[in-house]
From TrEMBL:
Transmembrane segments: 12-34, 54-77, 89-108, 138-159, 171-191
Keyword Transmembrane: yes
Domain VTT: 80-187
Name of the protein this chain belongs to: VTT domain-containing protein
Species: Cyclobacterium jeungdonense
Lineage, broadest ranks: Bacteria, Pseudomonadati, Bacteroidota, Cytophagia, Cytophagales
Keywords linked to the UniProt accession: Membrane, Transmembrane, Transmembrane helix
């Protein structure tokens, strides 16, 4: 790999990390506003029926992680921090991270099963075409970036399987997903205790 490619990879990772930090700051800001400008009773009235239903929240999380990360995982991290309904905070983050890692591997295997790259051209999801182009350009490095940033981890996992990434490589590279969960959880825990 030449210097230009290394620089391009670093810039790609940095740009996406900055997007992730921006979204995290935005979410933490909304969390702070809700926390300081509403009462606990008001928050419970808005979110109570959802907040208290562990099966519903975890079910939504699983579906979101399988179907291209529709809901940012930080929302579920905040839920876990606020409620403690699936155990102590960092234990619950481990559960959420494991679910995300497993959902990614499920999508990776679906991609290996499909293997039809032309399918992407026939779908109505132009972003999939864009991400397939990025996978062809960056290969497994894209899995690392998607694991750590707001890029749709599930979609990248699917495309990685379609693109022929070796399962062992995928499993190793996607371990960064677990790292992301614990880093973000640590940040949210720190903000909670300010």
């Amino acid at each position: 790999m030449n210097r230009k490619e290394i620089k391009e990879r670093r810039q790609f990772l940095l740009n996406n990390l900055l997007k992730g930090l921006f979204y995290l700051v935005l979410l933490v800001g909304v969390f702070f506003l809700l926390r300081h400008f509403s009462t606990e009773d008001q928050r419970y009235a808005w979110f109570g029926s959802i907040y208290d239903n562990v099966v519903l929240v975890v079910g939504l999380f699983v579906l979101s992680e399988i179907f291209f990360g529709i809901i940012p995982p930080e929302v579920f991290m905040l839920w876990s921090l606020e409620t403690g309904m699936i155990g102590p905070y960092f234990f619950s983050i481990g559960i959420l991270a494991s679910i995300s890692y497993g959902a990614g591997f499920l999508n990776f295997n679906m991609g290996r099963w499909v293997r039809d790259k032309d399918w992407i051209n026939r779908t109505r999801f132009p972003r999939l075409k864009k991400y397939m182009g990025l996978f062809e350009k960056f290969g497994g490095y894209l899995v690392v970036v998607a694991s750590m940033t707001p890029l749709p981890f599930s979609a990248i996992s699917l495309l990685s399987g379609m693109g022929g990434l070796v399962p062992r490589s995928y499993l190793l590279l996607s371990l960064f997903r677990i790292l992301r969960y614990f880093l973000y959880a640590l940040i949210l825990f720190g903000v909670e205790n300010l």
